[in-house]
Every structure is written in structure tokens, then in C-alpha cells.
Amino acid sequence: MSQNELFNDGVVKQDVVNARTISVLVPYPVDKAYDYIIPEDLNVSDGDYVLVPLGGREVPAVVWGQSRGDVKPEKLKSIIHKFDLPPMDVAHREFIAWTARYNMAPLGFVLKMALSAPGGLEPPVPAKGYRLKDGFELLKLTAKQNAVVQVLYDNVPRIAADIAREAEVSSGVVKTLFDKGVLECVDIYNPAPCIKPDPYRQRAELSEDQAYAADGLCDFVRSGSYKAVLLDGVTGAGKTEVYFEAVAEALKADKQVCILLPEIALSNAFFQRFKERFGCAPALWHSHLSKGQRDNTWRGVARGHTKVVIGARSALYLPYRDLGLIVIDEEHDPAYKQEDGVIYHARDMAIMRAFKGSFPIVLVSATPSVETMQNVWDGKYEHMVLPSRFGGAHMPDIEAIDMRLEKLDAQHFISLQLRQAMEETLGRGEQILLFLNRRGYAPLTLCRSCGHRMECPRCTAWLVEHKVGAGQGRLQCHHCGFHAYAPDKCPECAEPDSMVACGPGVERIYAEAQHYFPDANVMLLASDTAEDGETLKGMLSDIREGRVDIVIGTQIIAKGHHFPNLTLVGVVDADLGLQGGELRASERVYQLLHQVAGRAGRAAKKGRVLLQSFMPDHRIIKALCESSHGDGRDAFIETEVAEREVAHMPPFSRLAGIIVSGRDEAQVFEVAKLLGRSAPQGPEIVTLGPAPAPYAKLRGKFRYRLLVQAGKNLDLQKTLAAWVAGVKVPSTVRVYIDIDPQSFL
Ligand code: ADP
Ligand code: ZN
Predict the structure, then answer these.
(1) Distance 698 CA to ligand 2 centre (A)
(2) Global pTM value
(3) Beta partners for 362?
(4) Is the peptide bond before 651 cis (omega within 30 degrees of 0)?
């Protein structure tokens, strides 16, 4: 075939009837792969990465099996070329197809998650490096030129800027030496990240319990077959240390490993630990990478050179060449649910990835989710337990403070009992964390005179006053970013100076703590006071190194961190979230507070946790208090499971959320009503709604919800597809399907 024909938009005019064709999946929201013609001089097979014409553009895509034959060959276009990469692993392709089916997402849209760094398909672009030319003549050199020559004596080529920095000269000097023929130019390639982690380096001395669990995990890795394991142990038990052994085992077999963490904020400390254990940095995968880093990592993973990836949920969809182990740290964390684009739960998807790839997956948690515990009890998952903290550290004592008995002044939030405990702690030179999962100064601003509440014009939400950080002096919406200056008179009744702040946010607790302890160093740690990773890193090391006495923090501080001198945790409002009435509300509160409590006394000193509550007899507060002596947690999960069984809720049934959204409320309501009228009902399936979503308006869009509750034997996806396809939806309205919804907002 001639070049002309190939570039004539790929339409091949001759021999079309005998042309070889194959189906190719493009990374766009399409439900199926399309047929393309294979050029005569090209060999392609399933999984190959190819470039194809699509709607006047050229797009990277993946060969997806035999041609479908649903379009006449003369109408087909031709593959443009094949990228020089090993094909996408068959397990990964099956996984993509399964993800699309399960979550009812377009197949090509899921592929897009795997082709998330198109630059990685191309060979790496070299940088221009310099080194000494063989047998160069030592002319008369200036001192600066000499400095450059000294730097390059090791024969390692570097880019001009690096040479200049090492030699402490300007890069012009390098250029001059090149012109003189002393230096020569070579291509240098940025190596893929994490190529040679060393599994034999820095192995920790494991305790007996740890060694037992680690050996078990290593056996699973060696077996090379699917197995799901819950690694269950209190915070500080050494779970990370233990699963690192499984990672090492996979590396010995030259397999790739994917470790998911819920929040990338965790990764700084983690990164260091990984480096110490394996002698090289892991590859990171999250939304803040530069394009170059993304391309380089993607390429390294696809070629099988990059061995360990640590990332947020999207790292699961990287096209691993030979994956041999997945670890999901903090498996219970709600951050594993992706709520936009393809809506999926990364932990649940990861189980299927391991199954398709025939290798083990380790779920790690101190407070496993109800679903995971049920799978353990059903015998579907192995259970490995680390019963105690490493090195004899004790679990903290957890007590409730009955706020009904505390006589606090209006708009004060730190009880006398907590204050006394803080004083004692400071007296011993130890640190305190006051936890409140609410950013800003006050969650609500209202008019004393007419009762008017400051509400976001675009969302069903109160505006939150902020006094610290970037949004200083403003009322902000935490959903859409709307902000306004705090008014000096009521916008409703025009009464001057009548607006008052109601309730506590972390900034207000910060002010109160400073007021009670004027000599203490108090730090405010929330996502808006530690905006970037570097600031957060600095703040965390200030805490670790004792430059801070009292930390006031949101959930950003709740997880993963290890502060040896922190011995008192005060939870300002333990009731927050208890009355939400959502399916997972109590589970979430329990997990979060348990995590927070886990920050206390992680080293030699025993910790104490005080929960301020107006409902100290609530079963969750009681379960938390009992969890310091061990069995409170399982009792809590068992009660939770029992309640769900009675209510016929997951894991005893399946749920799907249908969200209808759009800017025109009448239109949205109309579609929701149509869906409601044709909703599937029967012995195995119930549909509730439509009802306005709890956030009935979000970012200017109106939202209605329906909730489908189905028996486990029903083909839920098939039923939903048939139902939704039967309702005509105008292009200005969107209908989202959320399988296994985590949030009901
Ligand atoms: P978890 O993940 O269960 O919360 P980590 O693995 O983070 O626990 O361990 C808690 C602390 O104890 C860490 O500082 C870790 O380095 C230390 N640690 C745990 N096990 C060991 C061990 N076998 N040898 C040395 N230090 C350990
Ligand atoms: Zn808003």
C-alpha cells in the first residue's frame, strides 16, 4: 500500500474485500470497539497500542480482538501505526471490560483511564547532555572552564544546567567548551522511576506476630494465584512493615506491585520508609504530577521496567506489564470511591484486578469496612491479625466527656475536663491534638435580629466563615468555591452588626486554645492552611520535632502520621455525623474517630483520648471507649452488620443510586418523575424516590435522586440498563448511575 493511500484519511481503495480487519477500542465514551483495516506491512495483535484516525483526528487506541464485521470494509479506515510497546496484558483488558460492565460506564471511557498519559506511548524524548570528548586537547583553560572539566571527569553526561550548578559557573561556560571541542553532545534519557528496588535491603526485625503474618503473605505471593487477604491490626502494629515483606517477595519474582493509598498527603512519610526499605523511591501516581513525570511513569509501567507504583485510586488502571501484587492501605477509606467520570470503588475493582491477573491482594486496615469483615466471616477473604502495637506501645485510654454536665459559656467549645487534661499534658512537655472535622471559623452565620442564614446561592449549603489563610475574612461555600465578604449588616433585614457566627470550626477552636494557653505553640492544620505538599511536610516535621505543643486539626491529620510525643487527643465534637441517618454514617464516624484516637501515644508514652459528646451513651461512643481494651471494634462491626441484615441493606443486598441533574429544575424533575414511574419494582427489587438530593442544588445544578435496592441474585446492571434506556433524556439533563453508592448526597 502506498503512502498516499494511507494518508488519504486511512481509506483504502483497493482490495478492500480481502483486507484484514481488526477491532480497536478508542479512549472516548463509546460502548464498543470499532473495526479498522490492518495495513499490509503491519503485524498487529490483541492488546497492541495503535494510532487510528477518528473523526478527523489521530488518536491512540488499543487493539481489542477480532473484527466485528458490522461495517462494510470499504467504509473502514486503516490503522496508522503501531506504537513500540509490549501489548496491554490480557488480564488488564479483561479488567477494563469488567469495570465498564459493572459500573455501567462506556467501555472506551474506562480505557481512557488506562491511557491517561498519551505521551508515554512515544519513545522517551532525550535531553541534550554533555561529556568530555575522547582525547580532547587540554588547551589553555580558564579557571571556570577547568572547574567544568573537573566535574565531568567521572564520564557521566549531564545537562548543561546541572554541570553549571556543580561547577558553580554559568551554563555559558559549558557552551564555550563545547564550541572549543572539549565537550561533546550526547542524548541522555530520564530513566523510568523505581527500576531496581532491592528486596533484600534493610529488612526489619519482625516480632513473632508480624513474622507469622508476613510469612503467610509471602506464601500467597509465591503461590502466584488469586487470594484476598485482610491484614487487620491496630494502628502502630506494624502493618506497613509486614506488607513490605509481601512487596519484597513479589519483587524477587520480578513482578510489579501496585500500592494504593487513600490520600496522597500520606505519601511523604511513606515515601521515606519505602526508600529505606528498598533503596530506591517508588513511582508515584496522582493528579499533581507534571506531564513529563506522568509520561515517564506510564511508559515505565507499560514496559514493565517500573516495579512499584504508589498512588491514588487511578493507579489501579495503569497498564501493568506483569502485576503480581496489589496492596490497598486503609481499605475502609471513603476516598477509594471515585464520584465523577467513571464512578467506581477502587478497592472493589482491585479485587477483580487481582482475580483476573491471578495474584494476591492485601487489604489493610485497623478499622475494616463492614463489607470486608463480612467477606472475612463468609470465608471469602483470609484474615491475618496483628493484635498489638509494635514495641510494647499501649493502646490509648478512650473516655467520653459528658457535655450535658459541662457548663460552658456560650460560643465556647473546650470543656473544663479537656482543659485540665491539656494542662497536665503540657506540664509533662507532651503534645496535644484537638480534632474537629470542620474547616473554617464557624459553620453558620446568622442574623441575630431576623434569623436570616447565609446560604450559598448555587448549593444547598451554609456559607462558612474563614478568618485564617487565603480566604481570610470571607464566607465560603465548601462545595463550589463560591465566596463573599462577610456583610456588616444583614442582607435580609438590613440590621447593622447583627450577623453572628454559630458553632465551631477549627479556626475557632484554634483561637480558643490560644486564649487558654497563651504560652503554648498552637498550630492550625487543615487542607486550607496546608495547601501544598511542601507546606504540609514542613508542618508535620514541626510537630514531629516538637516545635508545636497543640495541634488543631481536621481529618488531614487523622491518618497515618506518627508523632511519638503526642499523648492527648481531644475530639471536640464526637457527635458530628452520628445523626446523619446515612447507611454508612456510623461506620464512618467510628472509623474516623478510631483513626484519630490512634494518633495518641504511639511510642513509649501511653496516650489518652477524650471524646466530647452530648450523647455519651450512643453505641458508637461506647464502642470507641471499649476499643481501647480490644474487643469493642468487632462488637461494633457485628452490631452494624446485624442492623444492615434486618434493614436488608448491603452487604445483604445491593444498592444503586440514580442521580438526575441539570440547570433547569422543571426539566430535571420531569426526567426524575419519568424514571420513577417506570422504575423496576418486584419481590427482588425496590426503587425509592425520586426525591430532591440532600444537596438539592450543587454548583448551580438541580439534583434529584432515586435509590434502587435489589436482591443479590438479580442482574442489577441489566435491569438498570433496560430501565434507563426506556426514558428519553434531553441533552441538557444528565442521568448518572452510581453502583454501590457510598455517599447519598
Ligand atoms: P501500622 O501501619 O500498623 O499503623 P506501622 O507499620 O506504621 O504500623 O508501624 C508503626 C511504627 O512502628 C513505625 O514507626 C514502624 O517503623 C515501627 N515498627 C513496626 N514494626 C517494626 C519492626 N518490626 N521493627 C522496627 N520498627 C517497627
Ligand atoms: Zn456553593
Answers:
(1) 6
(2) 0.85
(3) 229, 327
(4) yes
Contact (Cβ atoms closer than 8 angstroms) between residue 331 and residue 363: yes
Q: What is the 3-state secondary structure (H, E, C) of 695-707?
A: EEEECCEEEEEEE
pLDDT, one tens digit per residue, over 104-138 is 999 999 999 999 999 999 998 888 899 988 777 66
Write the DSSP string, 475-530: EE-TTT--EEEPPSB-TTT--BT-EEEES--HHHHHHHHHHH-TTS-EEEESTTTS
Q: What is the pLDDT of residues 39-73, one digit of tens each?
A: 999 999 999 999 999 999 999 999 999 998 888 88
CA–CA gap between residue 357 and residue 351 (Å, rounded): 10
Lowest mean pLDDT among 235-244, 399-408, 600-609: 600-609
* CA 530 to centroid of ligand 2, rounded, Å: 22
At the fourth CATH level, the homologous superfamily of domain 654-739 is Ribosomal protein S10 (3.30.70.600)
pLDDT over 90 at 315, yes or no: yes
How far, in Å, are 136, 185, 695 from residue 146 at the CA level? 13, 18, 68
Output the CA–CA distances (angstroms, integers) from residue 703 to 136, 660, 741, in the order listed: 73, 6, 16
Residue of 327, 367, 390, 599 to test ligand 1 pocket, by largest number of atoms within 8 Å of CB: 390
CA-based torsion, 296, 297, 301, 306: positive or negative: positive
**Atom 15 (ligand 1) nearest CA:** 238
Q: Does the pLDDT at position 13 exceed 60?
A: no
Query: Rounded to a whole number, what is the largest CA-CA distance in the chain?
Result: 94
Distance 544 CA to ligand 2 centre (A): 36
Which set of grid coordinates corresponds to residue 390?
509494635
Give the cell for residue 314.
487511578
What is the whole-number distance in angstroms between the Cα of residue 333 and the centre of ligand 1?
20
Outline where 171-238 has alpha helix (H): 171-179, 208-223
CATH of 6-115, one of 3.40.50.300, 3.40.1440.60, 3.30.360.10, 3.30.365.10: 3.40.1440.60
User: Ligand 1 site: residues with CB under 6 angstroms?
Assistant: 204-207, 210, 233, 235-241, 390, 562
The CATH code for residues 395-438+505-643 is 3.40.50.300
Q: Which residue ranges make up each domain of the chain?
A: 6-115, 127-188, 208-384, 395-438+505-643, 440-503, 654-739
Give the ligand 1 atom nearest the CA of 205: 23
